[in-house]
């Protein structure tokens, strides 16, 4: 073979077929090429997405650690936080009172912990408490922002802030004066009479009485008629009463997964707020209350001759004709930097009116029932105090079985001592005193940055042996007129701290206790009664 032939035949070694043979070969078409390109892009996109997720997690962890370094930077002792929950998960496992007992023992009377990312300062030092709640209250008037801006709580004194909070509270405070509550004594006496019938029926069976649900029935019955304009009749058959079941269900599910999600991941809060308001996730209780109040308000405004003496009417009467822009014509600055109306006080909007009746229900339902239950339990454990209280009631009333008057109840000083001591030992809401710094502020040697939450641990302050001799002892004599006045350090006693707690609910509990004493029954603990500290005490009602 010649070299020419060798060179000529070389390429045919690669593909010895003729050009005619190549015509039948299958080459990649456009679909194949596009598919191949998409596979390559998908593979790289997956890697890029995975890389992006990893980088985001690294950034999020770094940011969360930075958020959870506030107390370390301030030099304040703090509870080491979980990256996601802070220390909030502990409150789902243990009683708040036990957690704070342990923390105060370990970290002292001033320390911090985290709710998710948010720093919360715990202050049990009375000098600092006095400065926060009294001297510098202007800097701590706000409660912490709501976790979810859900209706109707955003329009209540719990949800409102700054100037609007001050305006609304200035309207509500006179509404709940003791003088005005006096006019509702008749309604309350009727509900207390029903309570006595319930107790009589149960006492004749010889079976132990479950006091907590009994007092919940009384409390809801009073609030329903005095504030909601609803005749609930819920004391006899509670489980068949829709409102009673709805209120209990709402409180049971108050700290639901949506709230926890917003606590731990604030970016979800706005989405959850929209969903909650759009789909009315606040529950059946809110639906019943709001719809009924709208109907009653409309009826009363259309017929001015209808005048009912109740909380709703008092709040309606407290409003005045609005200015064109809804703002008073003349305002003046006050010492706390907020303004105060001179000619025309700011109005309650209908939303605020309904919302604050709604919060009145939540604020009174459990706390008043708690106070009555704990007091009854303590009287059962201390028969000598029970006997003395009975004697005072008999002396003031002359042994009459007629309905009690407001004046009679107000003369019962020992009854008030008993309740004060009961509220000292067992404050119905353990950590309700919670505030937020409106600006950077120094309290003593302590620097508190803007927006930091502050909790005053009531249970621990009320049982501090530094301020209360024999703090675990139930001793109403601490409050007798000749005893060393609690007013020397009023912040050491935080048993009654809300705008309405000293009015309607106080009158209700006094009437109930007094009437019960008139029955002449001796209250005794049943053999299997639980130690009261083991009972579940709510950490806070709505606004952690």
TrEMBL record:
PANTHER family: CYTOCHROME P450 (PTHR24302:SF47), CYTOCHROME P450 FAMILY 3 (PTHR24302). It is an enzyme of class 5 (isomerase). GO terms for cellular component: endoplasmic reticulum membrane. Belongs to the cytochrome P450 family. This is Thromboxane-A synthase. Keywords: Endoplasmic reticulum, Fatty acid biosynthesis, Fatty acid metabolism, Heme, Iron, Isomerase, Lipid biosynthesis, Lipid metabolism, Lyase, Membrane, Metal-binding, Microsome, Monooxygenase, Oxidoreductase, Prostaglandin biosynthesis, Prostaglandin metabolism, Transmembrane, Transmembrane helix. It comes from the Eukaryota. It catalyses: prostaglandin H2 = (12S)-hydroxy-(5Z,8E,10E)-heptadecatrienoate + malonaldehyde; (15S)-hydroperoxy-(5Z,8Z,11Z,13E)-eicosatetraenoate + AH2 = (15S)-hydroxy-(5Z,8Z,11Z,13E)-eicosatetraenoate + A + H2O; prostaglandin H2 = thromboxane A2; a hydroperoxyeicosatetraenoate = an oxoeicosatetraenoate + H2O. Its cofactor is heme. It is found in: Endoplasmic reticulum membrane; Microsome membrane. The chain crosses the membrane at residues 41-61, 254-275. Residues 10-20 have a biased composition (Basic and acidic residues). One of its GO terms (biological process) is prostaglandin biosynthetic process. Its main location: endoplasmic reticulum. SUPFAM superfamilies: Cytochrome P450. Residues 1-20 are annotated as: Disordered. InterPro entries: Cyt_P450, Cyt_P450_E_grp-I, Cyt_P450_sf, Cytochrome_P450_3A. It is a multi-pass membrane protein; Peripheral membrane protein. Monomer. One of its GO terms (molecular function) is oxidoreductase activity, acting on paired donors, with incorporation or reduction of molecular oxygen. It comes from Meganyctiphanes norvegica. Its EC number is 5.3.99.5. Catalyzes the conversion of prostaglandin H2 (PGH2) to thromboxane A2 (TXA2), a potent inducer of blood vessel constriction and platelet aggregation. Also cleaves PGH2 to 12-hydroxy-heptadecatrienoicacid (12-HHT) and malondialdehyde, which is known to act as a mediator of DNA damage. 12-HHT and malondialdehyde are formed stoichiometrically in the same amounts as TXA2. Additionally, displays dehydratase activity, toward (15S)-hydroperoxy-(5Z,8Z,11Z,13E)-eicosatetraenoate (15(S)-HPETE) producing 15-KETE and 15-HETE.
